[in-house]
Amino acid sequence: MNLNKLLMLVLSISFISREALSIELKYQNFDALSTQQQSVVKSWIEYGVLASENTLGPLSQDYVPVKLKPRYFAFEPVPWATVNRGNPDGIELHFNRYAAESTLKKDWTLYHEIAHLYHPLLNYEDFWISEGLATYLQNITMLENGIISYHDFKNRLWSGLSRGKQQTKSKQGKLSSVSSNMWSLRAQQRVYWSGVAFFIEAEIALKSKTPSAPSVAQLIKQYQLYRKDPTQDTNHFISKLDQLSHSAVFTNLYRKYIHRKDFPIITRTQIDQLRH
After folding, report:
1. Is 146 left (phi over 0), alpha (psi -120 to 50) or beta?
2. What pTM value is reported for the model?
3. C-alpha torsion angle, residues 11, 147, 264, 231 (rounded to 10)
4. Would you say 112 and 92 are in contact if contact means Cβ atoms under 8 Å apart?
5. Which pLDDT band, with edges at 50, 70 and 90, does 232 fall under?
6. Is the separation of the CB atoms in 76 and 96 below 8 Å?
7. How far is the C-alpha of 234 from the C-alpha of 236, rounded, in Å?
8. 6-10, 89-93, 149-153, 174-178: which has the minimum mean pLDDT?
9. β-strand 63-71 against 80-84: which pairing, if any?
10. pLDDT, tens digit, for every residue of 180-226?
11. Distance (Å, whole) CA 206 – CA 214
12. Could you tell me the pLDDT band of residue 17, with boundaries at 50, 70 and 90?
């Protein structure tokens, strides 16, 4: 890592630690933790929200309910988490109550679930979009806030895409159909990483037309200004991304992807084009 990148990393971490949250977090089951554990968990979650806001901007809701599910035994810092859709949307975190603060901050799960709050609830057949977007944004957020390096960022994308490609061999059918039955088929790798490939392709297509075109993360940031109706569906979401990017990239790719039976081809060279 050169001196400039090191300086940016230090400044990024310092920025996160100094800034105040722009949204209120309402914790549930906070009393189940000791005083020290409360401090660790609060610091971890606020850190994750601030990192997400640094990359994706403020959320378009007044507060975020945070349901805490501390575990006494866990093999991972955060073995499971989910978004609870409602009015407003919230997150539920199952975590190791004894995990160190630094370990929790390096775990990807919180950034993934927060990313889900930036898009509407989509239909089952379109879960590949929502899970792909959250997976892509989690890595962008971790990269831009110095949590992972650019090298790690590229390797994580490449490894995930490789897993998705491998699973497509056994989880066959149209992507929309596999997505609808993702949990029963245990097809998460194909579904999640097909969605990541979609947004990688979209980002590269936008940049190829106009080098100054906004990134996917920047478009999601802009989208928050228009996300007022909780009933927005996939067509509205995709159309709004096209409108914000002054293109038809997302609609054209969406029409192609919903019928896919193969896994998208994304090369290492394409991944190298994403962030420098």
Report:
1. left
2. 0.91
3. -80
4. no
5. confident
6. yes
7. 5
8. 6-10
9. unpaired
10. 999 999 999 999 999 999 999 999 999 998 888 999 999 999 999 88
11. 8
12. very low
- Please say if the pLDDT value at position 145 is more than 80: yes
The pLDDT assigned to 8 comes to 46
Backbone angles phi, psi at 126, to 5 degrees: -110, 15
Residue 246 CA to residue 34 CA, distance in Å, equals 51
Which phi and psi angles does 150 have, rounded to 5°?
-65, -35
Question: What count of residues does the chain have?
Answer: 276
The Cα–Cα gap between 123 and 51 comes to: 28
CB-count exposure of residue 69 (10 Å: 0-12, 13-18, 19+): middle
pLDDT at residue 211, as a whole number: 86
Q: Which two tokens stand for residue 232?
A: 């927005």
Matching residue, tokens 């109550």: 97
CA–CA gap between residue 269 and residue 1 (Å, rounded) = 20
Report the alpha-carbon distance of residue 53 to residue 56 in Å, rounded.
5
| Residue type at position 120 | P
- Confidence class for position 21, pLDDT limits 50, 70, 90: confident
Three-class HEC string of the chain: CCHHHHHHHHHHHHHHHHCCCCCEEEEECHHHCCHHHHHHHHHHHHHHHHHHHHHHCCCCCCEEEEEEEEECCCCCCCCEEEEECCCCCEEEEEEECCCCHHHHHHCCHHHHHHHHCCCCCCCHHHHHHHHHHHHHHHHHHHHHCCCCCHHHHHHHHHHHHHHHHHHHCCCCCCHHHHHHCHHHHCCHHHHHHHHHHHHHHHHHHHHHHCCCCCCHHHHHHHHCCCCCCCCCCHHHHHHHHHHHHCCCHHHHHHHHHCCCCCCCCCCHHHHHCCCC
Which residues are 82's β-sheet partners? Answer: 92
